[in-house]
Amino acid sequence: xxxxxxxxxxxxxxxxxxxxxxxxxxxxxxxxxxxxxxxxxxxxxxxxxxxxxxxxxxxxxxxxxxxxxxxxxxxxxxxxxxxxxxxxxxxxxxxxxxxxxxxxxxxxxxxxxxxxxxxxxxxxxxxxxxxxxxxxxxxxxxxxxxxxxxxxxxxxxxxxxxxxxxxxxxxxxxxxxxxxxxxxxxxxxxxxxxxxxxxxxxxxxxxxxxxxxxxxxxxxxxxxxxxxxxxxxxxxxxxxxxxxxxxxxxxxxxxxxxxxxxxxx
Length: 265
Hints:
By secondary structure, the chain is an alpha/beta fold.
């Protein structure tokens, strides 16, 4: 884990979130890019572009924001980018060779046009960039127990397990695998390859309508301090980001970080 990206909004939690990212990066000897992405706007009724104003505001905000935390010797670099959130973020992560994005669950931006707040859900659902979602006000501490919840253990992509393996190795953590048999279960979904087997401490099989519901039923038994899931078109985060549901409320009450890997297939 060498390069970590932190998109910054204007939430009250922004300072503690960046401090968490710095503490996390220090454990790996990684550097951090603190990033804001703004779009281009033209003032109504005129031909005067104001994107340079937005860029200046963004840079000023980042500098003030970075000055408020203890960098602890970690290299922290501020960057502003112009463009649409998802497209720009994917290009930036590729260019900077980002290993992981550290996200707030909510940014609550007061200037949507500049800071693109409330976008964590978009980043998770619309990109394949590995991400660590950190609860609001959470203080960094080494991980000791990881819970990986999957409905299918089939892995076709290379290096997709890298963030999970890096965290396990760095903190010498135990990894519990929860295999969930859903109504769409296929014959080979529970076939675990050698790479995955090599990092798993224990394996549990469960049957549930969704991976998310199985997690809620089993996480207390495992008592993990990090949940790990993978992206799917109709998977864990379909339920996680639905508004005003009991499941979402229950999930947030657990107050644990979530590591989101890119799709395995």
